[in-house]
Amino acid sequence: MSAPESPDQRHFFSHLSSRQTSAAPGSPTAAVPAGAAPTRTTTNRLPILKAQSGARNNVTAVVGEFVGTFLFLFFSFAGTQLANTPASTSTEPNHTVLIFIALSFGVSLTANVWVFYRITGGMFNPVVTLALVICGGLPITRALLIMPTQILAGMSAAGVISALLPGPLAVTNSLGGGASTAQGLFIEMFLTAQLVFTILMLAVEKHRSTFLAPVGIGASFFLAELVGCYWTGGALNPARAFGPAVATRTFPNYHWIYWLGPVMGSLLASGFYLLLKAMQYQECNPGQDASGADLERYEDRHAQHHTTTEEPKV
């Protein structure tokens, strides 16, 4: 049971709800009649991707995810192939190469998520799809169609890069820097959790800056690649790891960490997100999506409330 709201908090949330009653038809707030009191169901329900389950929409989602995942990994693999040509025999980290690879993945994800978000949600990753199912953002039926599509797109992108660019394919994931299998597993887990939680908070959880979500997602992925590339190759995505492994017919005995690690990270991020939703995190730091005028009114009333309720000094 949550703690009771103070009068100023109730006024603030009521004011925001009344401003949202003029939202576009079909939005969650558009269904609230003007003057009606807001409810918990209206203000705090989980925003979802509004995915329809019709056959045509499922086909559109599958085609969109295949093309989007292919383009994301195609340009990421192309940048990685360029960075690793010619192949280096040094065991020391080449920071220029690592930054170039991280930028290739981060910028490619940013661009393609921005393009495909309106079509499929721009997931491009089976563990991101898993997180959306867990958090109520995607029907299971569509997820079961999309996940194999993402794996197939990863295989296709790796195959095209292998055939298109000269030299052996140099984009496979492998442990480096003396990292053990256990270390690689948990590196993949924590880096994936960072990426998935960013996606849940910036893209799934609707707010005033949702349209800029691809920038935050790309920055998060760039950071994860920058940290993990030297130690594990920075997969964070079973489709990214499996595609090059198939193209090169190279499966190290620890390949399973590139599946289990990201799945564990997705479960960790999803669990934390659902915990925050259950704790009604919006009330911890209210007004983050309000306009400047709304926030000023709330702060003024909050200050007046504390002034009037302060006990007189004896």
TrEMBL record:
Gene3D superfamilies: Glycerol uptake facilitator protein. Residues 21-39 have a biased composition (Low complexity). GO terms for molecular function: water channel activity. It is found in: Membrane. Residues 1-39 are annotated as: Disordered. The chain crosses the membrane at residues 66-84, 96-117, 123-145, 183-204, 211-236, 256-276. It comes from the Eukaryota. It is a multi-pass membrane protein. Pfam families: MIP. It catalyses: H2O(in) = H2O(out). InterPro entries: Aquaporin-like, Aquaporin_transptr, MIP. Its main location: membrane. Keywords: Membrane, Repeat, Transmembrane, Transmembrane helix, Transport. PANTHER family: AQUAPORIN TRANSPORTER, MIP17260P. Belongs to the MIP/aquaporin (TC 1.A.8) family. This is Aquaporin-2. It comes from Verticillium dahliae.
